[in-house]
Amino acid sequence: MSGRSPTSDDLVSELRRKIRPDLVVTTPEILENFRADRSGLRSDSAPIVVVFAESSSDVVEVMMSATAHRVPVVVRGTGTGVAGASFASAGELVLSLERMNRILEINEEEAYAIVEPGVINGDLNDVLRDRGFWFAPDPASRAISSIGGNIATNAGGLMCAKYGVTREAVLGLTVVLADGSMIETGRRTMKGVTGLDLTALVTGSEGTLGVIVSACVRIRRAVPGGVSTVNAYFPSARDAANACLAVSSAGLTPMVMEIMDDQCLAAVHAYLELDSPPSGSASLLLQFDGESSTANAASANDILRRHGGRPETATDEAHAEELLRIRRSVHPAMARLGTTLIEDVCVPRTRLADMFDRISEIQRQRGIVIPTVAHAGDGNLHPNFISETDHIPEEIWDAAQELFSAALEFGGTLTGEHGVGTLKKRWLRQELGDTQVELQRRIKAAFDPLNILNPGKVF
Ligand SMILES: Cc1cc2nc3c(=O)[nH]c(=O)nc-3n(C[C@H](O)[C@H](O)[C@H](O)COP(=O)(O)OP(=O)(O)OC[C@H]3O[C@@H](n4cnc5c(N)ncnc54)[C@H](O)[C@@H]3O)c2cc1C
């Protein structure tokens, strides 16, 4: 235990008196796990302690002690965040919610579920499926990320162009504030406009405003009818993007609309040890649900052909699942190429093709490899900046800066779904401007006057 300051020793002893001692962990090997998330960033040294809260009263005790000792708190779900918002450094306390993982209520009549924050997104869906319901937010990390983390990052996913991002599925939250007081935000009713919408404010706040200890989330009845899946190859990502626009403009609303550029597609095929895709091709994956899915897929196929695509409709469920597996394997395939900065800009859908062109230009001019995948239905691109070094070098940051400027020039945003964390912090003013950044800081100070919740992240 040597090397800890008297303050941190006092804090740890106090916590072990107040909550079950085995939940308060200072084992160096365990603390090491909390120095990184999935952003590729790593702190210089380990935090003081990690507390594995099992109840909201544990969280209250932790926050009261942290406030009393002025110790910063990094709230942690399952640590799959890619914005550098959930890793901790020297002098910090990690508050892990992963053991608060109970589904507290499923109300089918009112179509909501009440869950603790550590419930894994995919686990909730497994339980709901048996009852004919589902939870729409579907980050590609749904098998490994927590609903608390999904809410705190306002996560998106493959289906949000049709079914919305996480915010649209959150009705109300129970939140423990920095001083240990607890508030209930939002509602369980279909409508409700009492006061400011603190549910929306806390959603996407990346652990900077409070600790979500339970959430009332909207669940949906399973959509009747089947699912039709279409895969199409295009000569370029620009062509695929134009085809997507034509599909949307025809009034068709696929639940999945994903583009992979040629480099990304080739890397995933190599990773999965599949036959190589047609040389130089980009791919577009479409999935329609509901009673009209077959007819809609047929209409989309005509449009894709007119835009230079070669579509093929999945013959059965196994074929469809294989096509989705290719899309869902982008992250590990990129990781195999080298150190990856996963970017997340979002542009108006009408500028998606221009953005693909700009990314190609940045690659050519800077000699950097940037395989790109896009949630084309909502204009959200994930360019993966690959480098051969074990860290993200400055020339990659310079290229990323060029990408952000292009996104803003096209009327877009720096982050569509991953958040600001530490990765995007230095560009916040470029998008929001001084006045808004100052206002956001004042809001943060109103929730957390001592700045102990995730300090140094986002703002
Ligand atoms: C393979 C892979 C695929 C991914 N795909 C997607 C995708 O498709 N879409 C997408 O949006 N993201 C995606 N992500 C990123 C990540 O999974 C999401 O951001 C996810 O929502 C984070 O959840 P988590 O439980 O891991 O949160 P963590 O990483 O633990 O935390 C993320 C942030 O939320 C805060 N936080 C966590 N829990 C709470 C809580 N209870 N109260 C308050 N604050 C809290 C943390 O302080 C931190 O700021 C992907 C990541 C990986 C590794």
Protein architecture, described:
- The protein is an alpha+beta fold.
- It folds into three domains: 6-96, Uridine Diphospho-n-acetylenolpyruvylglucosamine Reductase, domain 2; 103-221, Uridine Diphospho-n-acetylenolpyruvylglucosamine Reductase, domain 3 (2-Layer Sandwich), CATH 3.30.465.10; 227-409, Vanillyl-alcohol Oxidase, Chain A, domain 3 (3-Layer(aba) Sandwich), CATH 3.40.462.40.
- It has 15 helices and 18 strands.
- It has helices at residues 6-18, 28-32, 56-69, 121-129, 147-153, 160-163, 198-202, 237-249, 262-271, 293-306, 317-328, 330-337, 352-366, 394-409, 428-447; strands spanning 24-25, 49-52, 73-76, 93-96, 103-107, 112-115, 133-134, 170-176, 182-186, 211-218, 220-221, 227-234, 256-260, 282-289, 310-313, 339-342, 372-375, 380-387.
- The strands form four sheets. A seven-stranded antiparallel sheet has the order 15-12-14-13-17-18-16, sandwiched between helices. The protein has a five-stranded antiparallel sheet with strand order 5-6-10-8-9. Strands 1-2-4-3 form a four-stranded mixed sheet.
- The protein is globular and about 70 Å long.
- Flavin-adenine dinucleotide binds next to β3, α5 and β10.
